[in-house]
């Protein structure tokens, strides 16, 4: 499963752990450091991720990349390259550990943002359908168990359960298109 250290992925980690025995799951957490955060932030994130995985007895696989450098080389935006590199890393990790599914922690809030972004960019009906609950990614099936959950409910669960998570400071920066949609457009629409 993809683990960022943020509230959504940490909640998914705990959710899947609770289902591990019932569904005979073999969980592997995959964390990709994009090389965009200050070292102090990465240390905070890594400490939380390490503690969560150790406490839940879930194997953690991690890797660091220089997204800025790769994005310039490939002529992609940071957001686009970051997404591509994450899924590439998830696929390689799933392949190495013989997994058949990759779980990501997309939520209903992500779904709203994605549909709005696609509307703004002029998507057709297929694009307006939003993020699917499951889709093929190479040889693997990507599943999104939290896609019907709102962020506010995830935060309530984490608080009630006293589960620590990392808050990525870049999620507040409106220089990224998705963050402008999240912090400006969605509140206007609400």
Describe the structure.
This protein is an alpha/beta fold and 190 residues long. The protein has 8 helices and 5 strands, in the order αβαβααβααββαα. It has helices at 7-19, 39-56, 67-74, 78-96, 108-121, 125-128, 151-160, 177-189; strands spanning 28-33, 59-64, 101-103, 134-137, 140-143. The chain has a 3-stranded mixed β-sheet with strand order 3-5-4, covered by helices on one side. A two-stranded parallel sheet has the order 1-2.
The biggest sheet amounts to: 3 strands, mixed
What fraction strand?
A: 5-15%
SS summary, helix count: 8
> Oligomerization state of this entry?
single chain
Percent of residues in helices: 40-55%
**What is the number of E strands?**
5
Whole-number radius of gyration? 16 Å
The low-confidence runs, each spanning 5 or more residues with pLDDT under 50, are none
Q: Strand order within the widest sheet?
A: 3-5-4
| Spatial shape | globular
The overall average pLDDT, rounded, is 94
Secondary structure blueprint with pairings:
Layout: H1 7-19, E1 28-33, H2 39-56, E2 59-64, H3 67-74, H4 78-96, E3 101-103, H5 108-121, H6 125-128, E4 134-137, E5 140-143, H7 151-160, H8 177-189
């Amino acid at each position: 499963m993809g683990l960022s250290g943020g509230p959504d992925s940490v909640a998914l980690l705990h959710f899947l752990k609770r289902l591990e025995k019932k569904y005979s799951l073999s969980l592997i957490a995959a964390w990709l450091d994009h090389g965009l955060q200050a070292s102090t932030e990465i240390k905070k994130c890594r400490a939380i991720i390490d503690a969560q995985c150790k406490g839940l007895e879930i194997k953690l696989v991690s890797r660091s990349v220089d997204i800025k450098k790769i994005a310039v080389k490939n002529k992609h935006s940071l957001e686009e390259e970051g997404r591509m590199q994450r899924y590439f890393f998830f696929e390689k990790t799933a392949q190495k550990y013989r997994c058949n599914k990759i779980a990501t922690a997309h939520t209903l809030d992500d779904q709203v943002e994605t549909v709005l972004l696609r509307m703004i960019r002029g998507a057709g009906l297929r694009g307006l359908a939003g993020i699917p609950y499951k889709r093929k990614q190479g040889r693997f099936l990507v599943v999104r168990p939290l896609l019907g959950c709102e962020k506010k409910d995830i935060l309530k669960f984490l608080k009630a359960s006293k589960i620590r998570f990392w808050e990525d400071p870049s999620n507040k920066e409106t220089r990224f298109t998705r963050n402008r949609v999240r912090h400006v457009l969605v509140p206007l629409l609400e």
